[in-house]
């Protein structure tokens, strides 16, 4: 006699990605149900769960060399992206990443769970009397992880994936691009895919998957691009901006609008003083030329002042 199906039970996963996501969800429920002080501390830590699968992950096992390379590349990418997105960092890329940033973005290994090969990584514990979520060190790690997942998602775009990857990665600068290239190379060169679930007070829960094919798209885009940088003076009209997203908008001759990154604390003052006025800006321009011939530009504000000879 055939067994009756429980109507309340979720349908069986149809793809490996669905299976991995379900395994990660089960682990999250198990972790959230733990009791005692360990559970309390766990609740204050952001959690990154990853699951590796593919040619190099047979029988729920992974080579130590591959796992080590992945973890090292992941930590390097998180550190460099966090440095690129930190408001307190100087506007330069030379020198080591400050220990302050390394400390708040450090990841710690946690439990291994049932999957092709799955592991939990924990962020640094947030003190009990820490600042509100989204205002301090928790935001820095969160912004770094989310930008890495943005790039992973762009690599899976149905069309022009490599161009989309460059658009997302270029504002992070040379250092971060190099680390992101190394991260994608670990997967692409070993034929490995990864499923990632990120949980934090700021984001909630986010899932992303980077297949070996998409990792190849990402690696190609970041390695093949010709990157140049220079300083430039631009005249135009200050037409807008966003303090939250840390940029101003400049309308230049021809009616085009360019987005210029700057410090969050500067946006309000600049808009109050120069909005809808013609200005002269000095910017650092980072340009990447893709193998397809397209140019991607990222602008960082160095100085801004009123135009003494505005055009009528």
Domains, number: 2
**Any idea what the radius of gyration is?**
22 Å
Which residues sit in consecutive blocks of at least 5 with pLDDT less than 50? 1-8, 31-43, 128-135
Strand content: 25-35%
Number of strands: 10
How confident is the prediction overall: mean pLDDT?
83
What class, by secondary structure content?
alpha+beta
Order of helices and strands: HHEHHEEHHHEEHEEEHEE
The largest sheet has its strands arranged as: 2-3-1-4-5
Q: Report the span from N to C terminus.
A: 87 Å
> What percent of residues adopt helix (DSSP H or I)?
25-40%
Shape: elongated
* Main sheet summary: 5 strands, antiparallel
Number of helices: 9
Task: Describe, in plain words, how this protein is organized in 3D.
By secondary structure, the protein is an alpha+beta fold. The protein folds into two domains: 16-224, no CATH class; 227-306, Nucleic acid-binding proteins (OB fold (Dihydrolipoamide Acetyltransferase, E2P), Beta Barrel), CATH 2.40.50. The protein contains nine helices and ten strands. It has helices at 16-32, 37-43, 64-85, 99-104, 137-155, 161-169, 173-190, 212-224, 264-274; strands at residues 47-54, 108-113, 118-122, 192-200, 204-210, 226-242, 247-252, 256-261, 278-289, 295-306. The strands form two sheets. Strands 2-3-1-4-5 form a five-stranded antiparallel sheet, sandwiched between helices. β7 and β8 form a beta hairpin. α3 (64-85) runs antiparallel to α7 and α7 (173-190) runs antiparallel to α8. It is elongated. The model is unreliable at 1-8, 31-43 and 128-135 (pLDDT under 50).
